[in-house]
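Exercise 7. Given the encoded structure of a 285-residue chain, write a plausible sequence.
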């Protein structure tokens, strides 16, 4: 199968927003990659892979990019470009955790998590996944030892797997609205010796396993709008002393997302932004 690559280049600000928009599409591109120019980090480009030739101007409109962002659309040789595009990426280090592909040896002295490129989101090379892992690492360093963990919108399962490897005796549940992501995350968990994680498909908290249940730790690495919409449900899933780690929001969206949780009487701690993305640590005190 011949894949098509569509590239838009220009200032990074709108490109961050465009990447979030395109990743949120139910029938969007096969992959979304964002790059900064080494000589000027305020400039960069977004690469979108498609199974058929896309309508560049229709994609531009969907992504919210102006005509100031030139588009280049071209076919690619018949290779697995989703995997190949990540085959040269180095391991991602986030505190005690290291995410790597099979092309790299597991880094020594780290909790190594093997995640290959695939259709689900969360290989660790995105500021949101790394931000969540850094926040989790800091909580563990502070003596936080949760006995129950929920990963909402698990994607590749990276965060749930990290929790299992760091917390061998904890109950770990992980859900995703996409059944394909659930299947992939379960396969990833098995590869990492974490097959006992309970993966299941669910739209937010709409599942019998989550009814009237609270957790010591909740991960939600999704997008800003769902984080706001799910704020009441996430709040109900937290008991006194519980923590939620939220990401998938742009730095510019942090105030709006924070407000939704502050309105519930929760305490917010912000992490340093990574690559234009924010991570929030929410506590019920």
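Solution.
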């Amino acid at each position: 199968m011949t894949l098509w690559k569509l590239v838009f280049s220009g200032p990074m600000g709108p490109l961050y927003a465009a990447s979030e928009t395109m990743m949120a599409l139910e029938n969007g591109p096969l992959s979304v990659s964002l790059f900064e120019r080494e000589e000027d980090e305020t400039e960069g480009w977004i690469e979108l892979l498609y199974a058929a030739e896309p309508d560049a101007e229709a994609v531009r409109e969907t992504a919210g990019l102006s005509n100031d962002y030139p588009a280049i659309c071209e076919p690619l040789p018949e290779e697995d470009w989703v995997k190949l595009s990540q085959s040269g990426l180095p391991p991602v280090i986030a505190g005690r955790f290291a995410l790597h592909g099979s092309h790299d040896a597991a880094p020594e002295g780290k909790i190594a998590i093997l995640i290959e490129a695939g259709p689900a989101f969360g290989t660790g090379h995105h500021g949101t996944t790394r931000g969540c892992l850094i926040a989790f690492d800091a909580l563990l360093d502070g003596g936080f030892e949760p006995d129950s963990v929920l990963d909402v919108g698990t994607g590749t399962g990276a965060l749930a797997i990290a929790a299992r490897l760091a917390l061998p005796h904890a109950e770990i549940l992980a859900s995703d609205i996409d059944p394909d992501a659930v299947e992939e995350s379960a396969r990833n968990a098995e590869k990492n010796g974490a097959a006992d994680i309970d993966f299941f498909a669910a739209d937010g908290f709409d599942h019998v396993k989550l009814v009237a249940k609270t957790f010591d730790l909740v991960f939600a690495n999704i997008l800003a709008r769902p984080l706001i919409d799910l704020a009441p449900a996430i709040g109900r899933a937290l008991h006194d002393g519980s923590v939620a780690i939220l990401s998938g929001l742009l730095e510019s969206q942090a105030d709006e997302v924070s407000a939704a949780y502050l309105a519930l009487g929760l305490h917010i701690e912000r992490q340093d932004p990574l690559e234009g993305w924010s991570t929030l640590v929410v506590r019920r005190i």
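Remark. The CA atoms of residues 42 and 138 lie 29 Å apart. Students should compare their own answers with the one above.
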